[in-house]
Amino acid sequence: MLDGMTKTEIKMLEKEQKVLKAIEKYLKLYNRTPSMREIRRMTEIKSLATVYDALKRLQEKDVLSWEPKKHKTIEIVEK
Asked: What is the mean pLDDT of residues 38-42?
């Protein structure tokens, strides 16, 4: 799967995976979805913009549903 991917694309994919795992862990612990700041803390990603980008890419891939302008609206899409 990683064949033909640039280093930047691989880093983006790794951040998406970190964000998704953080959301899943938070849901198990607290039975609610985390905020972007909580995701940033859990993943140790430095920028909220990077968290936002990862969430948008996951949404585009139909991995999760999310309304960016609303607080705590992240939902993992069951397949």
From this structure: 96
